[in-house]
Design brief:
Layout (H helix, E strand, L loop, with lengths): L14 H11 L6 E2 L18 E2 L3 E5 L2 H15 L3 E2 L3 E5 L2 H6 L3 H13 L1 E4 L7 H7 L9 H7 L4 E5 L14 E6 L8 E5 L2 E7 L8 E8 L4 E5 L7 H15 L2 E6 L8 H14 L1 H6 L11 E4 H10 L5 E5 L1 H15 L6 E7 L5 E7 L5 H8 L9 H21 L4 H26 L5 H4 L6 H18 L1 E2 L21 H11 L9 H10 L17
Parallel strand pairs: 2-4, 3-5, 3-6, 6-17, 8-15, 13-14, 13-15
Antiparallel strand pairs: 1-18, 7-8, 7-16, 9-12, 10-11, 16-17
Helix pairs in contact: 2-16, 7-8, 10-11, 13-14, 14-16
Amino acid sequence: MALRLASSRLSGNPASKRIFLDRSLTSHLTPYRCFLSTSSDVDAKVTVGQSIKAPPMVYIAGEEMTHYACDLIVDKWIKPYFDTSAWEYYDLSCNARDDSDDKVLHEAVEAGKRIGAIFKEPTITPSANQVKEFGLSKAFGSPNGAMRRGWNGITISRDTIHIKGIELGYKSPVFFERHAVGGEYGAGWDEVGQGTLLTTYLPKDGSPPFVVDKRDLTDDHNVVVVYHNPYDNVAELAHLFFQRCLEAKITPYIVTKKTVFKWQEGFWATMKEVFDAEYKEAFEKEGLLERCGGDLQHLISDAATMQLIRWTDGGFGMAAHNYDGDMLTDQIAQVHRSPGFITSNLVGKKEDGSLIKEFEASHGTVSDLWHDHLAGKETSLNPLGLVEAMIGAMQHAATLDVERNPGDEAKVVAKAKIMNYTETLRESLHNTFRYGQGTRDMSGPSGFTTEEFIAKVAWRLERYLAMQDEEAPPPRLHEPDRKFRRNYDIDVEAVNKMFQKYDLDGDGRIDYEEFEAMMVKLNLAPKKKSGEGIEPDV
């Protein structure tokens, strides 16, 4: 999916003036603690030039604007504090894959399986035009399938990112678990004419084969598609999902289309079985089932799309099949603000039971801003999703390093430093937005450029780590106007006509009765809770 996170419009305010405004904002406010402190018996302090040995991690490089931004982030935010020589670097740009005949992808997958902690920049899956543009020998497929297979993918966790004090689409967290394997993405297909299609199953145990499906094709032009949903790891997905929801104190829902697609019943049945056996009592104790009739609720995927629009208070999680998860998380991203405000974390499992976690931003390489950059124009890329991915990968790498080296005090200290650093980095990043010093998708035309924003966060990060105090709390902001987004494509004239349709008395306002009529007409009005005995399917 293409990303439109930022604006390349030229700013009318010079950097020096913006820095002056930054200082003036804080003059009348009181200090507060800006970082999450660790236990007192472990030295978690991080300072510039300390060169803390970062634990092993796989770094997968991509290309275009996000690669440029990640280079700046590593140089300005990470290398001043950490020795990253234990990181293994793999270049998955189109040209690198072409030069190695995709050997580099297989090497990256093997490294990820061995190390277990991976940061991935956005990559390009080249189109036919890009094959010509980049001079490639062929159109390479997306690397994601190879990664999911190679790392025994269980789920892709996608969660909303929140900045305290800034209103976004959802007021509180929304979690999503997308089954990482199966479905349409691994389908076999072909174009055929008239004839008969047989789908035959040959059991591995040598028992007699049988026909799963037989159908006569009477059209001259048909597309036939075959795929399957592997369900062995759905129980593991359930445990990951329910544990995360319980820890975050949010209400879980399971999404399928099982009323029509009968083969999806097994997904719901497994999730419900795990929930009833191991989690229901804990969720009841926390009062997290009150909003869903006192039990784990199943949502038909059609209903889920509507609830995602209605439930803007957040505080819920959903789990779904691969394709439904892909579509629904795109919708969550748009309700919340954009794909840049959603995480993406592939979770797999090694033979020894330890988790493999790959972290990436939930957006693409931002080609349009890259072209502006190459043309010498100012750009303003919001790196929030990239930074959340980097934080997740560094924290998981530190956790694995301690688990694999029991009793090694140096590893414990290194983990404490990384946890302190990453939490302080997040606070530095968020506070920069809170002070109104964000990129232009958040702060409008006067916002910082890509380079200015990264420099500003670097300045704030160094100060926070050195002082562990901020002079003043940043002001509370409302959600930035969505018109700042570069892909803002709302038809204002059509919205105006729609407003006039529901402004029944033509006074230029919509009163409560008119608003209620509009909500009912658009099928957006909240429904009454049916209480006890609620049907599981909505």
